[in-house]
Amino acid sequence: MSLPEIEPVSRESTAGIIARQLRDAIMTGALPPGTQLGETDLASRFEVSRGPLREAMQHLVSEGLLRSERHRGLFVIDLEPGDVYDIYSARSAIERAAMLRALRGDRERVATELEQAVAAMAAAADDDDPTALSWADLRFHEALIAASGSKRLVRMARTLLIETRMCLTALQGTYQQVEERVTEHTRIIEALRAGDEETALSLLEAHMEDAVQRLAPGTSLREGEAPAVP
To answer: Start and end of every HTH gntR-type domain (predicted)?
Structure first.
């Protein structure tokens, strides 16, 4: 089979490295929602020219993590109630599909993998480390989706999970007791291990609904109608 001339695979580009670091800063809240990104300041911090910086920021615009305002520049997205609804509505569909596959596969293996994430959540709660708690929470959902064995579900979830990490940062202050988050995830695992499809899906739905109501009071996934997204 003949192939056209193919360039050798190169290491991660400068723009890719910058995009990854900015993405991480947005995920963790180091760059909070609404922050304006100044090219001059960022180029100086990264010690790069504006070319790769602009390329990196355009990657994040295409991912939906930055928004462009005419004559003003680029800003980290704000998660309005409509955005929260949209994120969790999409996640619910993806994770429901992943849960169904997990229930019909090797439930014990998946449950054990999810328990590792919950153990990390519990340790972070004991250490009063909200950042580690949120990362462990995210790993739980990544593990559930990965356990589906569906490359497409994993790919669909990738950007959603970045936005979810932003939501988890905001969620930190809504729990009076962080152990509540650990308990929610533990109950989902118990239903999965038991093969109780109805309970597992119900708990997963309730978990998403609870997050939406904490982040956007008055908004509900169960109403079936999204609030307006600006």
So the answer is: 12-79
